[in-house]
Amino acid sequence: xxxxxxxxxxxxxxxxxxxxxxxxxxxxxxxxxxxxxxxxxxxxxxxxxxxxxxxxxxxxxxxxxxxxxxxxxxxxxxxxxxxxxxxxxxxxxxxxxxxxxxxxxxxxxxxxxxxxxxxxxxxxxxxxxxxxxxxxxxxxxxxxxxxxxxxxxxxxxxxxxxxxxxxxxxxxxxxxxxxxxxxxx
Length: 185
Hints:
single chain, CATH 3.40.525.10, 6-stranded mixed sheet, 8 helices, CRAL-TRIO_dom
C-alpha cells in the first residue's frame, strides 16, 4: 500500500533512536496534525488516515521486535509528542473530537501493548482538556505518560533527563549532530 502524499506531508513522524532501556523512541509534532481537515473530507478519507496510522504502528512494532532478544527483553516503545499548535480549531470541532475519542476507544489495547513511556510537551489548555477526555478510556495507561505544559524552560530539562542527548533534536535540547534513524513524512 502506498501512503497518500498528503498524509505523508501533513502527518510526519520519525524513529529518533533508542532510550536507556533500549526501547525505540518515536517522535511527532502532533499538535500540527490537522485531523479536522481529514474529518471534513469524510469517512472514506478517515479509513485511509487509519490505514496510515496502522502503518506507523507496524513500523513501531517492527522496531520493538528488532531490539527484543533473549538477553534483553524489549516489549515497549517510548514516545515524545509535541502538542504545540493543537488549538480551538481542532478541539472545538465536535466531529473531530468524536473521531479522536473513537480512535482511543477502539485502539486502547494497542496503545496499552506498545506504550512503555510517553512524554507530551507543549500541552496547552485544549490539549489538557483532550487528555482529560481520554483519561477514562485509557485509565492506567496514562500512568506511563508525563504531560508538560507550554513552558519550554520547565519541560526541556525533563526531555534531556528522559532521553539520551544524541537522539533528541536540537529544538528539544539535543545536539546539532542529531539524525533520526528513519523519517516518515
